[in-house]
């Protein structure tokens, strides 16, 4: 038990187990160690235009942004240059990016394609003294499209069964309607496998939730996070975006 920390959530009254900082090599943004408050939600991103003091940094390569576009208000600093750019003087940073350089107390949110590079960037910022760094919890269409190549990730459709019967489903997804999600995630490993045909996710498994337009998926993401699933994310575009892009 020396390497295990038990955390109690006053909001939910639930116990969950997380790896200790020693297990994570001091990286509090590691997938098995990250706590929910270090992950930005869809609501955080949607509200950014109302909070110019918060900085959203997309750490993908410029070629990726050219192919997909970028989130409004974000600036692009590729992961490999994050440390260098955050060490720029305030004057040089503002001249280069058109935004004031964040102070070590200002909120910074990092985004990428799947969240991995965002976590690495948040760690870099944390090591430089930026104590309000977060990584974004939104999954993209491109990542969902690539899920057949990543069986270690689990896509959960939280729509009702009658909706799936009408539209079909995204490949590799399993269906757990939102009202049943908490119960489903509390099943034993054997019960989950028998019911859904997939191994039950661990607390560090990458979970992606989707619905029709992203609203219920965000509720599912928040619920899973409250249960200790530290890598839960919302496919914000959900079925609506998937269907539209599949028709092209």
UniProtKB/TrEMBL annotation:
User: Which stretches make up the Rhodanese domain?
Assistant: 50-143, 149-247
Statement: the UniProt record of this protein carries the keyword Signal:
yes
Q: Which UniProt keywords apply?
A: Signal
**Top-rank lineage group of the source organism:** Eukaryota
The portions of this protein that span the membrane are: none
Q: Which residues form the signal peptide?
A: 1-19
Q: List the Pfam families.
A: Rhodanese (PF00581)
Designated name of the protein: Rhodanese domain-containing protein
User: What is the scientific name of the source organism?
Assistant: Anopheles culicifacies
The taxonomy runs: Eukaryota, Metazoa, Ecdysozoa, Arthropoda, Hexapoda
């Amino acid at each position: 038990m020396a390497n295990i920390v038990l955390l109690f959530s006053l909001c939910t009254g639930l116990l969950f187990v997380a790896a200790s900082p020693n297990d994570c090599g001091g990286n509090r943004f590691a997938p098995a160690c990250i706590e929910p408050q270090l992950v930005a939600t869809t609501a955080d991103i949607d509200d950014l235009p109302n909070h110019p003091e918060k900085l959203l940094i997309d750490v993908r390569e410029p070629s990726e942004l050219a192919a997909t576009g970028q989130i409004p208000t974000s600036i692009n600093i590729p992961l490999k240059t994050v440390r260098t750019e955050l060490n720029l003087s305030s004057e040089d940073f503002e001249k280069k990016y058109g935004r004031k350089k964040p102070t070590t107390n200002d909120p910074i949110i990092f985004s990428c394609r799947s969240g991995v590079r965002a976590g690495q960037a948040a760690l870099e910022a944390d090591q430089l003294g930026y104590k309000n760094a977060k990584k974004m919890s939104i999954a993209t269409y491109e990542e969902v499209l690539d899920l057949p190549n990543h069986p270690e990730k689990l896509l959960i459709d939280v729509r009702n069964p009658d909706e799936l019967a009408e539209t079909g489903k995204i490949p590799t997804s399993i269906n757990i309607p939102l009202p049943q999600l908490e119960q489903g995630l509390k099943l034993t490993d054997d019960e989950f496998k028998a019911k859904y045909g997939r191994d039950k996710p661990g607390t560090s498994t990458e979970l992606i939730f989707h619905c029709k337009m992203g609203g219920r998926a965000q509720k599912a993401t928040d619920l899973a996070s409250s249960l200790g699933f530290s890598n839960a994310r919302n496919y914000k575009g959900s079925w609506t975006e998937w269907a539209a892009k599949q028709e092209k």
